[in-house]
Amino acid sequence: MFKKFDEKENVSNCIQLKTSVIKGIKNQLIEQFPGIEPWLNQIMPKKDPVKIVRCHEHIEILTVNGELLFFRQREGPFYPTLRLLHKYPFILPRQQVDKGAIKFVLSGANIMCPGLTSPGAKLYPAAADTVVAIMAEGKQHALCVGVMKMSAEDIEKTSFLIKLGPVEATCLQSRVPTAVAAAREKLKPFHPKSLAPAAVAWAKPPVPGCLRL
Is-above-0.70 flag for pTM? Predict the structure, then answer.
């Protein structure tokens, strides 16, 4: 699942950004992540060169002085790298999985609804499509950057159906009772190659500083 980043193989070109473009990007970051505003000039100092590194699969990486800070795909929203999130953990809202889910999340599994409502997990209010930091029971730092594919309210409702239904599958398997499957029908996993709908999906850039899945 982890792939070593090779600059010659993965990077197509690198562009230094003009001041006007940088200003627009900063405004977009503030809009996406309101908590980042007081720290943005520290993360992206005004006089430091800001570049966009363009990679294959339409991935763009925002860098400052060679440090990878954010990434996006196809002009979509920006996501912080895991390294940046560890430095500024308060810039993203969080969700927490129980300690039993750690190895599965680090192996690239999306997080199913019960994974956020089981003992040891913590489900915080969040809307669908919110970018979140995935924490783990008993751990200080985030495991990954994820995207909410359902609202926290819908996750609670779906988990309630799972508890009532004749479920044989674990939260990492795609076999679910009909009622739950119907509730999840509207979901589209963040990554097109994912086979099972998920409550939280990985953000998966081929870049260092963020886990590559």
Answer: yes
| Tokens encoding 95 | 């969700």
Task: Give the integer Cα–Cα distance in Å for 183 and 202.
Answer: 21
Boundaries of domain holding 21: 1-80+174-189
Q: Are 137 and 97 in contact (CB under 8 A)?
A: yes
Tens of pLDDT, residue by residue over 30-87, are 999 998 999 999 999 988 999 999 988 888 999 999 899 999 988 889 999 999 999 9
The string of pLDDT tens digits covering residues 126-173 is 999 899 999 999 999 999 999 999 999 998 888 765 545 443 322 322
The answer to the question of residue 58 being in a domain is yes
Look at the chain and report how many structural domains it folds into.
2
CB atoms within 10 A of CB 6: 9
Q: Is 213 within the bounds of a domain?
A: no
